[in-house]
Design goal:
Elements lengths: L1 E7 L5 E4 L1 H11 L4 E6 L5 E7 L3 H14 L13 H10 L2 E7 L2 E2 L5 E7 L5 E10 L2
Antiparallel strand pairs: 1-8, 2-7, 3-5, 3-8, 4-7, 5-6
The structure holds zinc ion.
């Protein structure tokens, strides 16, 4: 079964920490050990895993992406969000995380982020949890 997590992103570009919602989805299925596949079904938002302790890390990532792929650059795609498509592809749309003892296996400082580049919007993150031995 696929679970859907729903988020309302607050601004055009934000790394929105979704770690606790993913963890809650894992708790609901009550498995001890397994894999958690995350998928963002959007073309201008992606997924990344990075530090969720010091918020300046997320600021740096967003600022550097903006410098690489500026919103007001020259693009073929004329919808006005070409940069958001490129940034979403740079982040990627999937993550596979391990589950042990009913918990996501993450590094001490790591969190899972929905990477929004064309907000504010309603976004979905699909979660597929598979039990493994
Ligand atoms: Zn577009």
């Amino acid at each position: 079964m696929i679970k859907e997590l729903h988020f309302r992103t607050p601004s055009r570009a934000v790394l929105h920490d979704i770690t606790s919602q993913v963890q809650a989805a894992i708790r609901e299925v009550k498995i001890e050990s397994g894999l958690c596949n995350l998928y963002v079904p959007h073309t201008t938002a992606g997924l990344t895993i990075n530090e969720n302790y010091d918020p300046s890390v997320c600021q740096d990532i967003l600022q550097r992406l903006e410098a690489l792929v500026p919103m007001n650059g020259h693009y073929s795609h004329s919808e006005g969000n070409a940069d958001a498509h490129v940034k979403a592809s740079l982040m990627g749309h999937t993550a596979t995380l391990m589950i042990e003892k009913g918990q996501l296996v993450l590094g001490t400082w790591q969190g899972v982020f929905l990477a929004e580049f064309d907000g504010p919007r309603s976004r979905r993150v699909l979660v597929k949890i598979t039990a493994t031995p």
